[in-house]
Write a structure and sequence with these properties.
631 residues; alpha/beta; seven-stranded mixed β-sheet; 31% helix; binds flavin-adenine dinucleotide
Length: 631
């Protein structure tokens, strides 16, 4: 190991050193002790966005839920302390869906008393903010939810909420985003061939306009693999000649892209390895588990001679079908959609952050001590895992719901007239064992997609400039992509522009098991994530960056100043996969059966829409609240 990264962790204002051996579920005593007391979100210095080390589903956030799943919670649970708190609405889950549900509910009942519970130390769920301040300058990156961007146009409800918060994606894009900043400096996307997969380490810059034969001229590939990649990328060959466009689309929807390349295009093994991880970021699995038709919608190569009619087809997945028809507007806040979560928090609890518009929220400091105050109608209670949600009486007629949660190791209960479960689908059967069996089975069907977004703080980005890249795809490496932070100036926030300035780098890892059905790959990926220590992530990051950027002068001991590993074992909502899931009749899909209202309990979250997008999280918050008011 080279110079260790200084990982700052502040819990309750106390700086604690997180050892390199922090593992999911196995905490050094020091950290466990601090976390047990982490309920004190009111303490001076409590500021989770600046924490580094293992974040995302951080240690301390999931152990209670896992014990509940393993039937190992109630046998050891202590007495439940009744807080005496009585709310109009309790929301379980403080992600964008839960926060939006609170806002929709308050819009219908302005004086409503609302409590939001979340098991994390920060608000926002996947919409997580990573904050760094090298040399005193604020640098932001999204720890999860990256952008306002969806396969379908935002609904009137979701768009209306954004506009009410002051977010006009089209206007902000024009005013604040600089998507062509790096290309304007002559920097290109790169591809890194690793020696374990391809026989030698080699980075190539994919300069626009240069033929693939030339780009690959010194790549560690056989002449046949090079020829095949060039053919797939550039040549217009109709590999399915004789079929109509509809027939071709049907055929492509039934085979994976890997099988298409192998069996239809007749590509070399190394050429297939070259494309294997291309789908990781969007689908959370490799090309073995994504249909050829779905990747065609994303302009993957190899289809240019097929003359397919533009537009979606019935056999496509949600994301591919949407983008085939156009997609939504896009905008990236410097901390991703954490800005939307923080706008919602400020809207619900005005005194929680200064400012008044969608631009000043970016640099506003959230005052966590103001999130859960008795005098406020809306309260957000962090580090609180709900473990039981039940009607006090017959669900058909009960007037109240009781919500029990664990916080700081102790059990507490609150009552409410209604409850929105804006948490993950798969935990709901454990929270509400009284649900009908068919509904519980439907809620268990999906498997969220695990992935890791790592924010790496760099002293400068001269090596990128020297190598002529701003992004690298690494098909065989531990992290399959790395990219320099987006350039966005908004409000008082200014992005770094000079290669001599500190810069954040995003590295994405998707743990996969090629060859297994998609949901099995996700289950295996979750185990991989929870069994991997910070020390391993750090080793892999240093090794990979040294190998990719070393020729550009990078020194991992000198140039990495901090690392935040956002683990999302429960990441994207599961979207059905045409290769593995049945074609359910409309209305019979598991997410539709699973989201049915149960008495005074309604179900939100992006899982309820089987769509891993912020607009889905918002739309289902709205539906859940409407259902409650329809009682
Ligand atoms: C890495 C990553 C990148 C993404 N990028 C994008 C993107 O660019 N654009 C986009 O539109 N979408 C993106 N998404 C999808 C993202 O999931 C949604 O956009 C949205 O943020 C989901 O919000 P949510 O409130 O439905 O769920 P979540 O954000 O998951 O919030 C649910 C919350 O409930 C909590 N919870 C669960 N169980 C309990 C319990 N028992 N007690 C208390 N709390 C509980 C969870 O821990 C979580 O904090 C991304 C997701 C990930 C993981």
């Amino acid at each position: 190991m080279e110079t260790p990264v200084a990982r700052r962790d502040f819990l309750n204002g106390v700086a604690i050193a997180i050892g390199s051996t922090v593992a999911g579920g196995v905490l050094p005593d020091l950290v466990a002790a601090a976390l047990a007391d982490a309920a004190a979100q009111d303490a001076v210095g409590y500021y989770p966005p600046a924490l580094t080390g293992l974040r995302g589903n951080h240690p301390g956030s999931f152990e209670t839920a896992h014990a509940l799943r393993d039937a190992d919670f109630w046998p050891h649970a202590g007495a439940i302390a009744a807080t005496g708190e009585d709310y109009d609405l309790v929301v379980v889950g403080g992600g964008i869906s839960g926060l939006a549900a609170a806002r929709f509910y308050r819009a219908k009942n302005p004086g409503a008393r609302i409590l939001i519970l979340d098991n994390h130390d920060d608000v926002g769920g996947h919409a997580k903010r990573n904050e760094f301040s090298p040399g005193g300058r604020l640098e932001l990156m999204n720890g999860g939810t990256l952008s306002i961007d969806s396969p379908r146009p935002y609904s009137a409800v979701a768009d209306g909420l954004l506009k009410a918060l002051g977010v006009d994606a089209a206007v902000l894009t024009k005013k604040c985003a600089e998507p062509n900043f790096y290309p304007s400096l002559g920097l290109a996307r790169g591809i890194f061939f690793d020696r374990e997969t391809f026989g030698a380490d080699k980075l190539i810059a994919v300069k626009p306009g240069v033929a693939w034969r030339e780009l690959l001229s010194d790549a560690p590939l056989s002449p046949r693999a090079r020829r095949d990649i060039a053919r797939i990328e550039e040549e217009k060959i109709d590999y399915l000649a004789g079929l109509s466009s509809d027939e071709k689309k049907k055929r492509l929807s039934r085979i994976s892209y890997r099988d298409y390349l192998r069996d239809v295009v007749n590509a070399d093994k190394a050429a297939i390895a070259f494309y294997q991880a291309r789908t990781h970021g969007e689908w959370g699995v490799g090309i073995d588990a994504v249909s050829a038709l779905d990747v065609w919608a994303f302009a993957f190569p190899g289809f240019q001679g097929l003359n397919l009619k533009p537009g979606s087809a019935p056999q496509m997945g949600y994301t591919a079908a949407g983008y085939a028809d156009g997609g939504s507007y896009t905008f990236h806040f410097p901390d991703g959609n954490a800005s939307i979560a923080r706008l919602l928090v400020r809207d619900l609890i005005a005194e929680s952050a200064p400012g008044k518009n969608a631009e000043d929220i970016v640099t506003a400091r959230l005052d966590y001590a103001r999130l859960d105050r008795p005098q406020s109608n809306v309260r957000i209670r962090l580090n609180a895992t709900a473990v039981r949600v039940r009607h006090l009486g017959d669900p058909a007629s009960a007037a109240d719901v009781e919500i029990v949660y664990v916080r700081g190791g102790a059990l507490a209960s609150v009552r409410a007239k209604a409850c929105v479960l804006a948490c993950y689908n798969m935990i709901i059967p454990y929270l509400c064992p009284d649900l009908p069996e068919q509904q519980k089975a439907a809620l268990r069907y999906a498997s969220k997609i695990p992935l890791i977004y790592t924010s790496v703080a760099l002293r400068n980005w001269r090596p990128f400039k020297a190598l002529g890249i701003f992004h690298a795809h690494a098909p065989g490496s531990y992290f399959s992509s790395l990219s320099l932070n987006e350039v966005t100036d908004i409000g008082k926030y200014r992005s770094a522009r000079s290669p001599d300035e500190p810069m954040l780098l995003r590295m994405v890892r998707v743990p996969v098991q090629p060859g297994l059905p998609e949901r099995d790959q996700h289950r295996a990926g979750r185990l991989d994530i929870l069994g991997t220590t910070f020390a391993t992530y750090e080793d892999k990051i240093r090794d990979q960056l040294a190998r990719i950027l070393g020729p550009g002068g990078f020194n991992s001991g000198r140039d990495i100043t901090a690392i935040t590993v956002n683990r999302w074992p429960h990441g994207y909502a599961y979207e059905y996969n045409p290769l593995f899931d049945p074609d359910w009749p409309q209305g019979q899909e598991p997410h539709v059966i699973g989201r049915a209202r149960f008495g005074r309990i309604a179900i939100a979250n992006s899982d309820a829409g089987a769509a891993a997008y912020t607009d889905s999280a918002i739309d289902h918050a709205y539906r859940a609240v409407e259902e409650l008011f329809g009682i």
